[in-house]
Design goal:
Pfam families: TatD_DNase (PF01026). With 264 residues, the chain is of the alpha/beta class. The chain contains nine helices and eight strands. It has one domain: TIM Barrel, CATH 3.20.20. The longest helix has 18 residues.
Length: 264
């Protein structure tokens, strides 16, 4: 199928015991590349190390998730700048704002987010963003920096149709996960995704989280999500958008190649 998973947390310790078999399942399921999400000092380094072990198939991002915003420091800023110079690191982030769980105070989240927006401006790297229950502040900050930024994706989008239109108006890409496969909490998203233009659609698993509820191929009793289940996201998107699975696979793959400059 030639799929690209733009966001999988493969530095997570739940993959330590079966990393290579997990990758084999992904390739067998039709994936051609996976971008490993960096979200902390340790996971940034781990994501790069894993990407180097599988050149041309695995790539990495480097950033600080808003949950960890209290850890922002000069050392972390220096690490992200340094990692941005490696060809395997194809994007900055995961960064943004999360007012849902509030693991870090809002002020510290905004400080860390602004610092990473500035690094993205400096480096010209694409930006991999996170927003949950923080649309107004997130949009205001993104709008301020958007003219200076390169490509931007709002990853794991689960917000309203109106929020989606706000991001599309800023020329952002939208990343869709297995949330769209959930007929309960994902119903509004399922109804909204036809509004994403073909050229702005990206797909991801956010593994090990957000196991697609429509998946019938995961191992029995295993609630861990993994990249091999990305085709189930494609299936739900095709149903929602009135397109073929082949079309959704092709446009999202081509968009990912352009977004992350994988053909450069």
């Amino acid at each position: 199928m030639g799929l690209i998973d733009i966001g999988a947390n493969l530095a997570h310790d739940s993959f330590d015991a079966d990393f290579e078999p997990m990758l084999h399942r992904a390739w067998q399921a039709g994936l051609e590349a996976i971008v490993i999400t960096g979200s902390s000092f340790d996971s940034n380094a781990r994501a790069l190390a894993l990407a180097r072990q599988h050149p041309g198939r695995l790539y990495a991002t480097a950033g600080l998730h808003p949950h960890h915003a209290s850890e922002w420091s000069g050392e972390l800023a220096a690490q992200i700048r340094e990692l941005a110079g490696h060809p395997e690191v194809v994007s900055l982030g995961e960064c943004g704002l999360d007012y849902n769980r509030n693991y870090s105070p809002h002020e510290e989240q905004r400080r860390a987010f602004e610092a990473q927006l500035r690094i993205a401006v400096e480096t010209g790297k694409p930006l991999f963003l996170h927003q949950r229950d923080a649309h107004a502040d997130f949009l205001a900050m993104l709008r301020e920096f958007r003219p200076l930024l390169g490509a931007v994706v709002v990853h794991c989008f689960t917000d309203t149709r109106e929020a989606m239109q706000d991001y599309l108006a800023l020329d952002c890409h939208i990343g869709i996960t297995g949330w769209v496969c959930d007929e309960r909490r994902g119903k509004a998203l399922f109804e909204a995704v036809p509004g994403i233009p073909d050229e702005r659609l990206l797909i991801e698993t956010d593994a090990p989280y957000l196991l697609p509820r429509n998946a019938t191929t995961q191992r029995r009793g295993d609630r861990r999500n993994e990249p091999a289940l990305l085709p189930w996201v494609v299936k739900a998107l095709a149903q929602a958008r009135g397109q073929t699975e082949q079309h959704v696979a092709a446009i999202s793959r081509d968009n990912a190649r352009r977004f992350f400059r994988l053909d450069a």
